[in-house]
Write a structure and sequence with these properties.
Elements (H helix, E strand, L loop, with lengths): L6 H4 L5 H14 L2 H16 L5 H12 L5 H12 L3 E7 L7 H20 L5 E4 L7 H8 L6 H24 L3 E3 L4 H18 L6 E6 L5 H15 L3 E6 L4 H11 L9 H17 L4 E6 L3 H13 L9 E6 L4 H9 L4 E7 L6 H13 L3 H17 L1
Helix pairs in contact: 2-16, 3-15, 6-8, 7-9, 10-12, 12-13
The structure holds flavin-adenine dinucleotide.
Flavin-adenine dinucleotide binds next to strand 4, helix 12 and strand 7.
Length: about 375
């Protein structure tokens, strides 16, 4: 039995000072208006070169990121590992459009994989396809619109970077996950990921894709990948998430007049999320699974399913995953019971990870109850310590 309400275990790593700072931050994040104005002002100020990096660093950055460099993340990785919680180094620099940025991100991803190979606290790697190539190009390839000569060679370079990071993962013996992004660029990423799985996942899963179960076509996609893997003799790995771009997806579908790829409601997303997890567990001889969620019920269900299928908590094919700075009650209590737990640990220069931080801040105001949950648990623990 995992006791997700055990705040002593959940926050063992945090000093009283750290907990009070987190309480203050989540209180602020509970005000959507403030978050909106604050994020815009911070972005503007950073672009103007105003000296607010220190302020960002001491607040949201500290809560949700491990540091600006991998070396700065090392003490956090070490601390979490002490409680059985692992890390994924996530170079969270987003929204770049220049070739030089893509080359740099590919190199940092490879460096992170090599770092992981040296650090047992970092068992997995990750990258965002749009970190290695322009989103407009991914979109054009996904839509199967013809590329001109220049775009063809640009696309070859993107493919080459993806191939290189996958090869580096296998050489470092650190499995690598493709993050999932907007549906209109996803087909090209899925095809390339499948190509990498066919190439690398013969003996075990070195390459994982991500499926967003808020899309109504994803369950069929998971099923078809499992069937393909059976026929062709390779293994498939999936990080299963609900999906982070729902409003954007719905707005685009409406404005361009095509049917929304998003499920009709949350219940449908939850059902497909559960079913995808079940499917992957049913075929564990050919699959591996990372459950990326902050939903306690989803964790409960996966624990129960593993129990009923007699899958040991420490089976290397099943991981629970949360983001650093969030839902420590899930991560640390699951790890205390011997389950494989890994937290995304974002890193990168403060100014460059701002889009990631703004998403975290907005998510913590918009997702029903997340901030409330974090605050309640932090306060419960502070009270317990006082007693
Ligand atoms: C380790 C990790 C890795 C992640 N990687 C990715 C990634 O690669 N790509 C990505 O897109 N996201 C990713 N996410 C974010 C994830 O997709 C969710 O946005 C986030 O985790 C919230 O979902 P939940 O399962 O934690 O919680 P819940 O609070 O149970 O679910 C909230 C989610 O349900 C869905 N939802 C809410 N309302 C509705 C509705 N009315 N109709 C249909 N669906 C609805 C939305 O997806 C929403 O985000 C990741 C999350 C984690 C923890």
């Amino acid at each position: 039995m995992v006791d997700y309400a055990n705040t002593e275990i959940a926050f063992k790593m945090r000093s009283n000072g750290e907990l009070r700072r987190a309480e203050w931050l989540f209180e602020l994040l509970g005000h959507p208006g403030l978050v909106k104005v604050g994020s815009r002002t911070a972005l503007w100020a950073l672009r103007q070169g105003l000296p607010i990096q220190g302020l960002v660093r001491q607040t949201v950055f500290r809560q949700f990121c491990g540091g600006e460099t991998m070396d700065e993340c090392a003490p956090v990785i070490q601390r979490m590992k002490g409680f059985g919680v692992h890390s994924i180094l996530d170079y969270s620099v987003e929204g770049k459009e220049r070739e030089s940025d893509f080359v740099r991100t590919a190199q940092v991803t490879i460096d992170a994989l090599r770092f992981s190979a040296q650090h047992p606290g970092v068992p997995l790697g990750v990258f965002k396809p749009t970190g290695l190539g322009r989103i407009a190009l991914w979109e054009k390839v996904s839509a199967q619109r013809g590329l001109n000569i220049e775009e063809q060679s640009e696309w070859e370079r993107v493919r080459h970077r993806v191939q290189n990071v996958c090869l580096a993962a296998r050489n470092a013996r650190v499995p690598l996950m493709f993050d999932a992004e907007e549906s209109w660029m996803q087909d090209a990423a899925d095809d390339l990921c499948l190509e990498m799985m066919r190439l690398h996942n013969r003996e075990r899963v070195w390459v994982y894709n991500t499926v967003q179960m808020y899309r109504h076509d994803r369950l069929a996609y998971v099923q078809s990948c499992i069937e393909m893997s059976e026929k062709e003799g390779f293994k498939v790995g999936f990080k299963v998430v609900r999906g982070a771009y729902m409003e954007k997806e719905r707005e685009r579908a409406e404005s361009l007049g095509y049917p929304s790829p998003i499920q009709p409601d949350k219940t449908a997303t939850d059902q497909d999320y559960d079913r995808a997890i079940e499917l992957l567990l049913e075929h564990l001889d050919r699959t591996a699974l990372v459950a990326g969620t902050h939903n306690e019920e989803s964790c409960r269900k996966l624990v129960a399913l593993m129990g009923s299928r007699k899958i040991p908590a420490s089976d290397a094919r099943v991981w629970f995953s949360q983001l650093y700075g969030m839902s420590d009650n899930l991560s640390f209590n699951l790890a205390a019971e011997g389950y494989n737990v890994v937290k995304y640990l974002p890193f990168g220069p403060v100014a460059d990870v701002m889009p990631y931080l703004i998403r975290r801040a907005e998510e913590n105001t918009s997702i029903g109850g997340q901030t409330g949950r974090e605050l309640r648990l932090i306060r419960q623990e502070l009270k317990r310590r006082k007693r």
